[in-house]
Write a structure and sequence with these properties.
Length: about 90
C-alpha cells in the first residue's frame, strides 16, 4: 500500500474543508496512493482478471484494456492488442 503523505497544514485544510474524518481521509489517501503507484503491467493483469470474472471474452478484454490504458495516467505509449496479450500471458 502506497499512502500519500501530506504536510500537516494541507491535511488540516482538507479535514476542515470536507466532511470527512481523519480515518476516512487516511483511507482515501491510501487508495489514491495505490491507484497512482500502479504500474501499467499490474493494471493490465488486474483488469484482465476482473473482466474475466465478469464474463468477457479475451478478445473483448484486450480491446477494453487497450482503450482503458489510453485514458489512464500511465507514462506509457499506446499499447497494441499483441502487447497486452504478451503482458498477460508472458
Amino acid at each position: 500500500m502506497a499512502k500519500i503523505n501530506l504536510d500537516d497544514q494541507f491535511r488540516n485544510h482538507l479535514l476542515s474543508s470536507y466532511p470527512v474524518s481523519a480515518d476516512l481521509l487516511d483511507h482515501l489517501l491510501e487508495d489514491l496512493g495505490d491507484y497512482f503507484s500502479l504500474k501499467v503491467h499490474d493494471f493490465i493483469g488486474m483488469r484482465h482478471r476482473e473482466l474475466q470474472k465478469e464474463g468477457f471474452s479475451n478478445s473483448e478484454i484486450y480491446s477494453l484494456i487497450q482503450d482503458e490504458v489510453k485514458h489512464r495516467r500511465f507514462a506509457s505509449s499506446e499499447l497494441s492488442i499483441r502487447q497486452i496479450r504478451r503482458i498477460i500471458y508472458g
